[in-house]
């Protein structure tokens, strides 16, 4: 991406190219200030109606390909919901010429980022970023999905994918606190028959009852060239690409004419007050939602600003009143959510344990009254706009991001070049506009109010709330239909003018370009690593201080985390509100965070504001405020976070697995938030002691990537280098981590869980071990390669047990762990665990030469994508610093992959995968699942709670 340097404060995009097959037209925005950034694109329309968008970007040897259909849940009918999302899944499975699993297999061979998709109310996206030599292959594959797919869908395939979708709903909705909130709001905000009355994922009953013909009819109506956009962005030849598009897509038949959906604006005739007892919620949550306007409506911009202003920062009314003033909730925020046909504005407040939602409603009402009285200042409006500017550039930092932006504008705004007007509309928002949308859509208007409360705590709901109607799935043993998704479909192949079964050849192989890294160690001990990158006018940085939880006492875990939080809350010369305002005025973000092994300051900003951002970083590090009021609030919020983790089966699994793999008293076994008991004991003096004893430049690294020179970086660090006092700090060596002598099964009971969370593993090697990268290669075909991995193919694609499963080696220089994690349907907990055990036991022995070749192809070719974004380059610097790697480690790793043979892989599997010395942890419903697990042969399961 070759972006012209940013010159003025407003975002203006003034030039793009729009063209059809035989003409080009250049358009220039009127009243533009200067050419700050240009995002050229070409638009082509094939005879069958397919819209094709090209954006050329030679900065990295990659190309993003996205096929987007203008069909989401809004195209469905009551009683036949969830079809659009179902097709997001189905289109990856098979097509006539790729065969079963063909797209996923091809993605692995070509080194793609992994074929992926998403579904919204209005569109369905299929996308992937690949090395540029695979572009023709991707065009061939996407055309096969659009025109040569539906014959391959059979009853067994449909039955299996229904199970996968059900598992996705269990994972994202049924097994989560407040997971049903969106359903309750949708059913009550939008009238019956409105396309947004149902959820994108649909009704499980509708899906279960859907016939094969129902599904095929839906596909034939909506997945057609004249209802789709193909977007290609990256390093490619546009003329050649157009020829390929015409070849592979051109003979796909045009579908029926698609008319724009029209609905009346939503109008509530009264307030709706509803409650729901949530099986997973630990604390109550209040929600209020008002109907607003669709995407790109003139009022949508001011509504977005209103949501941001009410939510973000110390002076935000919701924070000032609800969180800090009345202290009835640990979080309160507002946002405007827009779609093609309608929009909604929501206010959400999550109360502290035991706080009734009437008091939260009173507090929220006070916050809104405060806004009504004071409005928004020009200064606050300007800082929000500057933040939007930074977000805009960050969205354009990858070819896929730019491609998505063009596609969304084409489909939802009717013009891929709408970016210019979109940005100008946001910049044009005035103080009066924000006040006016509040009066028009919020003040005195009817709303839907929800009280989500823990089981048995209906007294905490807002007074007079009526019980919301939610259909909860009952998981019954053996209720799911059996299927064999491997059965080949029988059909007459769709005619074509050429042989589509022949996969196109690769183009010219791209060479891996390693970003140039500069390194320096300052006299204070700070290690500096940087990469100059002027693709976008942004800078990202991370200042990392080693230590973190490793330097804490096990009876007061949580000190480093609370210290990091407190360092965000002002400096000696700036109150918390003044510090936030200074950051926001620069369109920047600065965050201090803690982890098990470090405390870090991360920042991103427009490059023109880098120097001022670094002055604030210096203040935060060298001049903490030690605000007692903020400390008390952080303590209260930390205790609430610990309480919230009890509501999440995944958080429970993570915390319990650490205790099992390291040993319950090991420092790395601790939750770095702490426990309720340890946090209660922590005082602000403990934070000061940690800061004075352990925050030192000698344990610090500074990594920076962006549109900034090495000289400017060195100059910006002068204050830290001179004023930050050195301290001799010794990080204790961790206790040895013992591999289990034999496998054991552990169970944590979450009554009525719709899914069981599996977390299996054992200790492994640290990231600095000579074999660490080799075991990452080993893991690719096991569970690290997404749909190319055996675990996914067996448990999701073969059995329909799960929505997703992964395995991986995670390590730092001091410790490493091998882990497999998944959420599976509750009533196949034993079957899933037994299958994982079987796969692990046979992985090395069954690993084939074909597996090795696919692995090598992916690991080598995917490196073309390794350093596309600033975030990827920053991770590269972290790898170099943390693991003491050379700057060209990516090239060296390619050589490692090339030299691996089949015997090497089998030896690695034998040495680093130990299914008979493994921790098998299950978090799920004890009443129905515990006893069956004894059949695994590892003894009686050990109950942890």
Enumerate how many helices there are, as a single number: 32
Oligomer: single chain
Structural class call reads alpha+beta
Mean pLDDT: 92
Global geometry? globular
Radius of gyration: 28 Å
Give the biggest sheet.
Answer: 6 strands, mixed
- Unreliable stretches, pLDDT < 50, 5 or more residues? 1-36
Number of strands: 26
Helicity range of the residues? 25-40%
Distance between the termini: 54 Å
Strand order of the largest sheet: 3-4-8-5-7-6
Strand content: 15-25%
Structural commentary:
Helices cover about 40% and strands about 20% of the residues. With about 950 residues, it is of the alpha+beta class. It has a six-stranded mixed beta sheet with strand order 3-4-8-5-7-6, with helices on both faces. Strand 6 and strand 7 (about 125-130) form a beta hairpin. The chain is globular and about 75 Å long. Mean pLDDT is about 90; it is low at about 1-35.
Keywords:
39% helix; single chain; 945 residues; alpha+beta; six-stranded mixed beta sheet; disordered N terminus
Brief summary:
The protein has 945 residues and is of the alpha+beta class. Helices cover 39% and strands 19% of the residues. The strands form 5 sheets. It has a 6-stranded mixed β-sheet with strand order 3-4-8-5-7-6, sandwiched between helices.
Fold topology:
Elements: E1 15-20, E2 23-28, E3 42-45, E4 51-56, E5 62-69, H1 83-90, H2 102-110, E6 116-119, E7 124-131, H3 135-147, H4 155-174, H5 181-189, H6 204-209, H7 212-222, E8 228-234, H8 238-249, E9 272-278, E10 285-291, H9 298-311, H10 317-325, E11 329-338, E12 343-351, H11 357-374, H12 378-395, H13 399-413, H14 419-427, H15 431-442, E13 448-454, E14 466-467, E15 518-521, E16 527-532, E17 538-546, H16 559-567, H17 576-585, E18 589-594, E19 598-606, H18 610-622, H19 628-645, H20 649-662, H21 676-681, H22 684-694, E20 700-706, H23 710-716, H24 718-723, E21 744-749, E22 755-764, H25 772-784, H26 790-798, E23 802-812, E24 815-825, H27 829-846, H28 849-861, H29 870-883, H30 889-899, H31 902-912, E25 919-924, H32 926-929, E26 942-943
Parallel strand pairs: 4-8, 9-13, 9-14, 16-20, 21-25, 21-26
Antiparallel strand pairs: 1-2, 3-4, 5-7, 5-8, 6-7, 10-12, 10-13, 11-12, 15-16, 17-19, 17-20, 18-19, 22-24, 22-25, 23-24
């Amino acid at each position: 991406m070759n972006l012209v340097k940013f010159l003025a404060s407003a975002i203006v995009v003034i030039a793009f190219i729009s063209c059809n097959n035989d003409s080009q037209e250049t358009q220039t925005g009127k009243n533009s200030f200067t050419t700050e950034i240009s995002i050229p694109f070409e638009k082509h329309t094939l005879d069958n109606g397919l819209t094709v968008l090209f954006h050329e970007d030679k900065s990295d040897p990659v190309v993003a390909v996205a096929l987007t259909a203008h069909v989401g849940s809004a195209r469905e009918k009551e009683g036949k919901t969830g079809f659009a999302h179902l097709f997001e899944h189905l289109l990856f499975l098979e097509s006539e010429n790729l065969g079963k699993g063909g797209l996923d297999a091809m993605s692995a061979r070509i080194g793609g980022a992994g074929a992926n998709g998403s579904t919204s109310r209005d569109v369905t996206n299929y996308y992937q970023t690949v090395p540029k030599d695979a572009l023709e292959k991707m065009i061939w594959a996407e055309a096969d999905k659009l025109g040569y797919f539906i014959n391959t869908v059979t009853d067994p395939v449909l039955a299996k994918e229904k199970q996968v979708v059900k598992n996705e709903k269990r994972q994202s909705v049924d097994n989560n606190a407040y997971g049903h909130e969106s359903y309750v709001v949708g059913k009550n905000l939008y009238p019956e028959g409105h396309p947004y009355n149902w959820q994108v994922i649909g009704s499980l009953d509708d899906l279960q009852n859907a016939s094969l013909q129902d599904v095929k009819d839906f596909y034939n109506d909506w997945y057609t060239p004249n209802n789709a956009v193909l977007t290609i962005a990256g390093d490619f030849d546009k003329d050649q690409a157009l020829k390929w598009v015409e070849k592979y897509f051109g003979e796909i038949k045009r579908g029926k004419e698609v008319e724009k959906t029209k609905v009346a604006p939503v109008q509530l005739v009264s307030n709706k007050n509803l409650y729901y007892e949530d099986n997973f919620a630990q604390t109550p949550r209040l929600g209020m939602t008002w109907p607003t306007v669709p995407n790109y409506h003139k009022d949508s911009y001011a509504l977005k600003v209103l949501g941001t202003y009410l939510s973000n920062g110390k002076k935000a009314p919701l924070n000032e009143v609800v969180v800090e003033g009345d202290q009835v909730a640990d979080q309160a925020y507002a946002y405007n959510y827009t779609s093609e046909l309608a929009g909604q504005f929501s206010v959400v407040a999550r109360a502290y344990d035991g706080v009734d939602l009437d008091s939260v409603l009173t507090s929220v009402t006070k916050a809104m009254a405060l806004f009504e009285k004071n409005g928004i200042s020009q200064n606050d409006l300007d800082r929000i706009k500057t933040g939007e500017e930074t977000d805009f550039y960050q969205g354009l930092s990858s070819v896929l991001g730019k491609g998505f932006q063009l596609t969304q504008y084409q489909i939802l705004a009717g013009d891929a070049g709408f970016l210019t007007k979109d940005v100008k509309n946001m910049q044009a928002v005035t103080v009066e506009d924000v006040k006016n949308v509040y009066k028009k859509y919020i003040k005195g208007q009817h709303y839907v109010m929800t009280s989500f409360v823990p089981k048995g705590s209906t007294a905490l709901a807002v007074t007079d709330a009526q019980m919301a109607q939610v259909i909860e799935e009952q998981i019954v043993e053996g209720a799911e239909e059996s299927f064999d998704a491997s059965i080949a479909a029988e059909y007459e192949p769709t005619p074509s003018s050429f042989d589509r079964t022949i996969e196109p050849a690769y183009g010219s192989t791209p060479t891996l370009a390693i970003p140039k890294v500069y390194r320096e160690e300052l006299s204070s001990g700070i290690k500096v690593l940087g990469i100059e990158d002027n693709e976008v006018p942004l800078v990202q940085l991370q200042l990392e201080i080693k230590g973190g939880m490793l330097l804490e006492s096990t009876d007061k875990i949580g000190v480093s985390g609370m210290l990091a939080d407190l360092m965000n809350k002002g400096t000696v010369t700036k109150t918390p509100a003044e510090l936030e305002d200074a950051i926001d005025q620069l369109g920047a973000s600065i965050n201090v965070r803690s982890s098990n092994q470090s405390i870090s300051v991360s920042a991103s900003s427009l490059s023109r504001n880098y120097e001022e951002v670094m002055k604030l970083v210096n203040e935060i590090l060298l001049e903490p405020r030690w605000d007692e009021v903020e400390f008390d609030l952080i303590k209260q919020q930390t205790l609430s976070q610990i309480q919230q983790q009890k509501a999440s089966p995944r958080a429970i699994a993570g915390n319990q697995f650490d205790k099992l793999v390291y040993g319950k008293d090991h420092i790395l076994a601790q939750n770095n938030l702490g426990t309720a008991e340890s946090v209660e004991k922590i005082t602000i003096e403990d934070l000061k002691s940690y800061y004075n004893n352990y925050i030192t430049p000698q344990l610090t690294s500074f990594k920076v990537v962006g549109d900034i020179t090495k000289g400017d970086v060195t100059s910006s660090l002068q204050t830290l280098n001179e004023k930050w006092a050195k301290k001799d700090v010794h990080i204790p060596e961790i206790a040895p981590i013992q591999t289990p002598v034999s496998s054991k099964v552990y169970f944590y009971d979450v009554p009525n869980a719709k899914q069981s969370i599996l977390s299996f593993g054992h200790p492994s090697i640290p990231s600095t071990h000579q074999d660490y990268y080799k075991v990452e290669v080993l893991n690719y075909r096991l569970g690290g390669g997404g749909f190319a991995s055996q675990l996914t193919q067996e448990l999701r694609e073969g059995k329909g047990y799960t929505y997703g499963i992964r395995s991986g080696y995670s390590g730092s220089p001091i410790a490493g762990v091998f882990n497999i994690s998944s959420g599976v349907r509750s009533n196949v907990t034993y079957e899933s665990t037994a299958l994982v055990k079987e796969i692990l036991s046979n992985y090395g022995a069954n690993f084939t030469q074909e597996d090795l070749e696919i692995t090598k192809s992916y690991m080598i070719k995917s490196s073309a994508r390794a350093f596309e974004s600033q975030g990827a380059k920053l991770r590269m610097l972290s790898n170099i610093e943390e693991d003491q790697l050379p700057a060209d480690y990516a090239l060296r790793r390619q050589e490692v992959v090339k030299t691996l043979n089949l015997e090497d892989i089998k030896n690695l599997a034998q040495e680093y995968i130990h299914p008979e010395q493994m921790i098998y942890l299950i978090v799920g419903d004890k009443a129905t699942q515990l006893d069956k697990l004894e059949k695994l042969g590892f003894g009686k399961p050990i109950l942890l709670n």
